[in-house]
């Protein structure tokens, strides 16, 4: 038999508050993973994914944290609207890369994303 599955019970007391505090400063998942790595002396993306699926408290903490982080970044952009020195390009690229912002959304409702291979023209009877 292998060793027992790692669980969030191995994390230090108050881990959830510390994780939320980090996200509340605009932190990313990578920073949170690094924090957990430092606590445990090991951590993997597979373990993160399993905890997100199987550990409800962990999953909810991360989801709340992500919302806090996005709010921090949005507030930074809003608060600096009149600051000519603010790096809007960097801020905007961060929002696109981190939170899935996009310049344009296109929906193809005719082909379902498939390539059009043939177009057939039909002669009207009225002509």
Give the number of helices.
5
What percent of residues adopt helix (DSSP H or I)? 40-55%
Q: Give the overall pLDDT as a whole number.
A: 90
- H/E series: HHHHH
Helix/strand/pairing class, anyone? mainly alpha
Task: Write up what this structure looks like.
- The protein is mostly helical.
- The chain has one domain (8-98).
- 53% of the residues lie in helices and 0% in strands.
- The chain has helices spanning 15-23, 29-40, 45-54, 56-79, 88-99.
- It is flat, with a radius of gyration of 23 Å.
- The mean pLDDT is 90.
Entry summary:
Helices cover 53% and strands 0% of the residues.
Annotation keywords:
flat, 5 helices, 127 residues
How are the SSEs placed, and which strands pair?
Layout: H1 15-23, H2 29-40, H3 45-54, H4 56-79, H5 88-99
Helix pairs in contact: 1-4, 3-4, 4-5
